[in-house]
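Table 4 source record.
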Amino acid sequence: MMMLSSAVDAFNNAYGSWQMDSVSDTLLNSIQSHGILVPISCIKTDDSLTIIDGFKRFRAAKHLKITHIPYAVVTTDLPPETLIFNLHQSQVCSSAMHKIRFLSALKCTIDSEHMSMVGLPYYSHIKKDIAKITALPESAQLFLHQKGFSLKEMVNLIHHSPDVFLTVLASDPFFNFSKRTLDHVVLSIINLMKRHQLTIQQIFSQTQYSEIMNKDITASQRLTQWVACINQCENPTLLAHQSSIHDALNKIELPAKLTFDTTLEHAGVTIQTTINSEKELSDFTSALSNTRLKKQLLHAVSLT
């Protein structure tokens, strides 16, 4: 095995694309200071150098804009998936997401043999489940990897609505979901959508999503408050009560925005308006003095 050197662009990192763990600062600093001391290992495929070991060293070199990399060519009769798995078994098996990405990157046939090799179950519709998971955006796959979701947990999470999962996950910087809380929020929202024919935006509105997300509090506090609102909305009685208040407010023809506390912890209706002229003030006070409107408003208040 002879050590050689070649330009970065000469290497093919397709067999390492399954890896999701970031390159450590320690490795970056070491390579920046001393260069790549241990050559990356490659096999020759179709006149290109395909990396089989040293994926992170290669990524670090590209990040540091190193132009040439030392390498060694390995000769083997093993199929690529067996070779890579033997070299990186502990990292491949570090999460179900890594296992699935490994099978995809190595273009493995989804059969009982390969599933057994990586320690995943084989069943009739496994190919469809894996296709759904690998179709998720890279950011979603990274979350599932970092939080340690099992194959079954991933399938359950995206089974009914991948869109709900991705929409909720997009707010992770504000809520810092754990595996348990994200699963709870997604499944609760899906149940509410099914049970009450609500859109996800309507659920966001009824659970004070925007208000909570924009509060100047910690991610943990935001999550606690939002989960509490979601749990309350899952109560069918509460949801029906909220709907009756919304209906009552929608009948009130007042030049103002009418809102209420959707958790029903605080009674009353909030009337919000902007007055820029004497006429607008007159219109507003006249509307409030209307007997029919006053009855509608008092009725709505009594429901809160």
